[in-house]
Write a structure and sequence with these properties.
flat; 84% helix
């Protein structure tokens, strides 16, 4: 069984290569999808004025915000491959963008000024919850950035920092 310890690093290296290859494929799919979404947003903005400028712009904004989500996910994959560890901050940004997208769509798509009190109330509750989500994710992002800037115990013990 003297070969067992040598097999573990070989397995780790192979697993690392497979993991990196999968991240590269995922990144490529995200880039292609973002490009397609961007093309669709431009095409729809240029051709769908039948119902007016505002609905066409709203649809374009919806698609562009979805494109931002794909771009931020690609950034998260890129950072993960570069640092060989999962980094939370890009995912917080994706959550913030997704919540903003939902607020924009809710306010733009639904008429919250109707006489129906229940519709208005439900819309305001949804906006409030989404605003809370944005606040929490923003706080998490700030805390993650602050944690990255603070010296670690190892840095303090060696005098670095």
């Amino acid at each position: 069984m003297p070969d067992a310890p040598a097999a573990v690093p070989a397995f780790d290296r192979a697993s690392g290569w497979i993991e990196t290859a999968l991240y590269v494929v995922i990144g490529a799919v995200l880039v292609v999808a973002a490009g397609l979404l961007l093309g669709e947003a431009a095409y729809n903005l240029a051709t769908e004025f039948d119902e007016g400028v505002v609905p066409a712009a709203r649809d374009a904004l919806d698609t562009l915000l979805l494109t931002f989500i794909f771009v931020e996910l690609f950034a998260a994959v890129r950072v993960t491959v570069r640092q060989q560890q999962l980094v939370a901050e890009p995912f917080f940004l994706v959550g913030i963008i997704a919540a903003i997208k939902e607020i924009v769509l809710l306010i733009g798509a639904e008429d919250l000024t109707t006489d129906d009190w229940q519709t208005f109330r439900d819309g305001m509750i949804e906006v409030g919850v989404l605003a809370g989500v944005i606040f929490v994710l923003t706080a998490c992002t700030l805390l993650a950035r602050r944690r990255l800037r603070e010296p670690t115990e190892e840095d303090e013990s060696t005098g670095a920092g």
